[in-house]
Amino acid sequence: MEADEFRQRGREMVDYIADYLENINQRRPFPEVSPGYLKHLIPDEAPSSGESWDSVKADIERVIMPGVTHWHSPHFHAYYPTGNSYPAILGDMLSDAIGCIGFSWASSPACTELEVSVMDWLGKMLQLPKEFLFSEEGKGGGIIQGTASEATLVALLSARTTIINKQRAENPNMTQGQIIDKLVAYTSEQSHSSVERAALIGMVTIRTLPTDDKGSLVGDTLQAAISTDIEKGLIPFFLCATVGTTSLCSFDKISELGPICNKYGVWMHVDAAYAGSACICPEFRYLLDGVEHSMSFNFNPHKWLMVNFDCSAMWVKDRTLVSGAFEMDPLYLKHEHQGQIMPDYRHWQIPLGRRFRSLKVWFVLRMFGISGLQQQIRKDVLLAKQFGQLVADDSRFEIVGEVTLGLVCFRLKGPNSANETLNKKINDDRRIHLVPSKVKDTYFLRFAVCARGTQMSDVTFAWSVIREITDKMALIPTG
Ligand code: PLP
């Protein structure tokens, strides 16, 4: 395909994308295929000579769409949202066209410099403490990681190197292995599984601490765990606290946890993957009170800030502690401006290569403006509250936890088994899609407001489907 054909096919593809997103509510949110469906629709081997675009394009509806879960359908209420907007798609198109691998400033200066600027913009939108922003005096700064999981892993490995260096300075006879054996990380039983995975990769012990009745990790619990571990001769070094947990959207008490971490030299990382976006609204900013005590923080603009996957914004108070953990400097990657005012992001992440992700963030921030993004968050929260009211008004149901942002956890009063049946019937029905979760042995359903275009009519539609299925369940004789 040469430029002339690309111009034409590109326009067609833009039309296809716009049609897909405009009419997505006509597609069932969850596909009806079984595992292995696609293998039978395409040949076993790649074509020996090139095909026409028309034959490729025909296969989008024949091969791909039957197996797509439509995350941007207004009837999709599973997991948490993932961002999608036309400015972000345009940003990704340009990023793909430029196609640079921005591992260092020299490898594509605009890629690094725009990221530095948009990370400061985002940090200011969240009213992050100044120490997290880039400045000539301070040591802080932000980076776009691919996912929250990577941000947590980078934070844990940075904390691990920091504590190893400190311990070795104090106890030169201890080997790195002996120190690692004594390290203890903490998180709550409600945190995302990526935190435990980070500890697995970092080969450190992790304790998943119990939460209170609201699903929050509180200071006393952490204090008790740290004291017990110190008594055993272990070395507490890392806490991953969550603002907006995955199952319940509960909030760890970071303003209690932070001072405890600082007292014991424990690196507090705050994961606000979903809820962080809401903190651009002044009325939700209180959720981040205490973030000033953390060493690192992340949230996912690719969840709730209209930016397409992948984009997890991460800030650190001391970037030298991150680059200190990851720095590798072969001659072929060096450049003459290294170590000057601009970072070489390759030292802040696991992979070497990195895409020009800041373009899509820049386009989104400029085209929606802060007020446009706040409007979207407020609309989604309002819709969740309205759904919560519909649930509360039906005496067969109860709300689990609190509806603070765009997630409503709810269940039929009574045994878990009835809720398991309800969940299965809703998803088998396929008009809407949601996923369940379980906290302290209570099984419940999660209703997340996900797609950008979700309206009140979609919320009432979802509730009518749930009620209809519940009504039918009541007619089925039990035992
Ligand atoms: N942390 C929290 C609180 C989450 O809710 C999620 C996913 O929903 C993650 C981390 C994982 O996000 P990612 O896919 O960006 O690694």
TrEMBL record:
<keyword id="KW-0456">Lyase</keyword>
<comment type="similarity">
    <text>Belongs to the group II decarboxylase family.</text>
</comment>
<dbReference type="InterPro" id="IPR010977">
    <property type="entry name" value="Aromatic_deC"/>
</dbReference>
<keyword id="KW-0127">Catecholamine biosynthesis</keyword>
<dbReference type="InterPro" id="IPR015421">
    <property type="entry name" value="PyrdxlP-dep_Trfase_major"/>
</dbReference>
<keyword id="KW-0663">Pyridoxal phosphate</keyword>
<protein>
    <recommendedName>
        <fullName>Aromatic-L-amino-acid decarboxylase</fullName>
        <ecNumber>4.1.1.28</ecNumber>
    </recommendedName>
</protein>
<dbReference type="InterPro" id="IPR002129">
    <property type="entry name" value="PyrdxlP-dep_de-COase"/>
</dbReference>
<dbReference type="InterPro" id="IPR015424">
    <property type="entry name" value="PyrdxlP-dep_Trfase"/>
</dbReference>
<dbReference type="Pfam" id="PF00282">
    <property type="entry name" value="Pyridoxal_deC"/>
</dbReference>
<dbReference type="InterPro" id="IPR015422">
    <property type="entry name" value="PyrdxlP-dep_Trfase_small"/>
</dbReference>
<dbReference type="InterPro" id="IPR021115">
    <property type="entry name" value="Pyridoxal-P_BS"/>
</dbReference>
<keyword id="KW-0210">Decarboxylase</keyword>
<comment type="subunit">
    <text>Homodimer.</text>
</comment>
